[in-house]
Each structure stands twice: as C-alpha cells, then as structure tokens.
Amino acid sequence: VDAILLLCATGRQSRKTLRLARTYVILKYADMVEESEAVSERINECVQYLRRDEEGTAEGSSDKL
C-alpha cells in the first residue's frame, strides 16, 4: 500500500497510469477485507488520490510540494 501511495504522490502521470490499471477497484476490495485500521487508513489515502478530479488544473500543478 505504501508503494502505491508513493506512486500517487509522484505525479499526475503516475496517478493516470494507476487509474488505467483500475488500481482503485483493487484498493477498495483490499479495504473491505483489511483488519488493520492503520493499513485501512493508508488504503483510503491512496483512494483519495485516485478519485480526485484533476480536470481543469494545469499540468504539474497538483505535483508541487
């Protein structure tokens, strides 16, 4: 989960690739069966990155620190 979260944070293109691979669906299923609250929170962080709307934002604007 941490590796996916790092990919989400690296940039728009990484998030786009994860969306195309339907990573969101896999994460939602993983969250359903996950018993650890800490891991579940990390999964939800990933989901929020993947669900957010980036339409209308300048390329790279969501990638700035």
Could you characterize what this model shows?
This protein has 65 residues and is an all-alpha fold. 68% of the residues lie in helices and 0% in strands. It is built from 4 helices and no strands. α3 packs antiparallel against α4. The protein is globular, with a radius of gyration of 12 Å. The C terminus is likely disordered.
Count of helices?
4
Q: Give start-end ranges of low-pLDDT stretches.
A: 59-65
* Helix percent band: 55-70%
* Quantity of strands, as a count: 0
The overall pLDDT average reads 83
Name the assembly state: single chain
Structural class, from helix and strand content? mainly alpha
How do the helices and strands follow one another from N- to C-terminus? HHHH
User: Strand-residue fraction?
Assistant: under 5%
Describe the main β-sheet briefly.
none
Shape: globular
Q: Rg to the nearest angstrom?
A: 12 Å
Give the N-to-C terminal Cα separation: 21 Å
